[in-house]
Each structure stands twice: as structure tokens, then as C-alpha cells.
Design a protein that fits this description.
Elements: E1 6-11, E2 16-18, H1 21-28, E3 35-39, H2 42-50, H3 68-73, E4 81-89, E5 92-100, E6 106-116, H4 118-135, E7 143-145, H5 148-156, H6 170-185, E8 192-194, H7 197-200
Parallel strand pairs: 4-7, 7-8
Antiparallel strand pairs: 1-2, 1-3, 4-5, 5-6
Helix pairs in contact: 4-5, 4-6
Length: 210
């Protein structure tokens, strides 16, 4: 089992130490210029919270990704796509991509685009992966995402974001509109699976910025 990580949120809705990435993401989503980072132990995280974010910014505290053979033994379906998004600030410059889970080969990439959020990027990445697999006539290939919100939005067929339309992010809203129309016109047959970060390490499409 992968070593558990702890997440420090210095600036967010509720600053503190969180024992899962999903819980930490709830505190930073929609919070301008949120500051956060992951640590390998609760003690390290609690010490970091008492200090300054800038004392830790740029340091590498990430879990090393597991090898494909390790993931396969843990039940990961390697003949699949993995998607992820990144956002510098929330809202901020947003990007997303999809990779082949077994090889890490990048299949598609979009951005960075201004005034986006991580949740929107995760949603667009999932729909992009679904559309790409349909073009490849691969209706049963699984897609992994570490975002529960994005999976719920895809299931609902709607991007339920509160992101403000600023004019600078026109392209993002065009992509959202296209994604929602695609979901309305196409039946989703590919399994959309939750990536278990706590046990498997970072998702293969991760940008390595946590």
C-alpha cells in the first residue's frame, strides 16, 4: 500500500491539515490564489502549517509514481486512459491532459487557458477522453480520474461550475458548451473509474505540482 499523504492548506476556505486530496481540494476549489502542498507524514504537515507556505514552495514532497507492474497487481486496468488537470490559482491558468495508463504516453493536451478552475479542467479532460475513445472505436476502454466532482458532472451531463464568465475565459466556456452537447448526443459506454491516489500514488496524468 502506498504511504498516506497529508495535505496542508495555508490559504483556502478552511486552512488546516487534511488526510485526503479530495478533502483538501474542497478547501481550495474556487479560492483565489490558494496555497497548499502535500507531505509524507502528519507531523511534517502540522509543522508546515505553523510556518509559511513560502518556506516549502517548490520543494518536492510528492509520492513517487508506482510502476505499471505494481499497479496491475493492485487491480489497476492498465489498458486505459488516465486524465488530470492543473490550475495555477483557482481561478487561474488551467490545463488538462490524457495519457495511456500503461505507458504514460500523452494522448491529448489542452491549455493553459486563462481564468479556469481545476474542477472544470477535470470535467473537460473526461469528456475529451470519452470523445477520443469513441473516435478510436474503443467503447469499453476505461478512463481513470481522481476527481469525484468531474465524474458526477459527466454522469449528470452538465458542468456544474460556479466559474464566472470573464471574457478572458471565452474559450473555456466554448469547450464546456461543446462537452455538454457531446454528452447530450452520445451514450457513455466507457467505464469512468476513480483513481485511488492513497493506494496507487499519483495518477499517471498528474502534472506533478501538488
Amino acid at each position: 500500500m502506498a504511504k498516506q499523504k497529508f495535505y496542508v492548506v495555508w490559504e483556502g476556505h478552511r486552512p488546516g491539515v487534511y488526510s485526503s486530496w479530495d478533502a483538501a481540494k474542497q478547501q481550495i476549489d474556487g479560492y483565489p490564489q490558494a496555497k497548499y502542498k502535500s507531505f509524507g507524514s502528519k507531523a511534517e504537515a502540522e509543522k508546515a502549517l505553523r510556518g509559511s507556505y513560502w518556506a516549502y514552495a517548490g520543494q518536492n514532497t510528492r509520492t513517487v509514481n508506482r510502476k505499471p507492474e505494481e499497479l496491475e497487481k493492485m487491480g489497476v486496468r492498465l489498458d486505459s486512459l488516465a486524465v488530470d488537470a492543473a490550475c495555477s490559482g483557482n481561478p487561474g491558468d488551467m490545463e488538462y491532459r490524457g495519457v495511456h495508463t500503461r505507458t504514460g504516453q500523452e494522448i491529448f493536451r489542452m491549455g493553459p487557458l486563462p481564468d479556469g478552475t481545476n474542477n472544470v479542467g477535470e470535467f473537460l479532460a473526461l469528456v475529451h477522453a470519452l470523445a477520443w475513445l469513441k473516435q478510436q472505436n474503443s467503447p469499453r476502454t476505461p478512463i481513470y480520474s481522481d476527481s469525484r466532482n468531474a465524474q458526477l458532472w459527466v454522469k449528470a451531463g452538465q458542468c456544474r461550475t460556479k466559474l464566472a464568465h470573464t471574457g478572458r475565459n471565452d474559450q473555456i466556456f466554448e469547450l464546456i458548451d461543446r462537452a455538454e452537447k457531446w454528452l447530450a448526443l452520445n451514450r457513455v459506454s466507457n467505464p469512468v473509474l476513480k483513481w485511488n491516489t492513497e493506494e496507487w500514488g499519483e495518477i499517471p496524468a498528474d502534472y506533478g505540482r501538488k
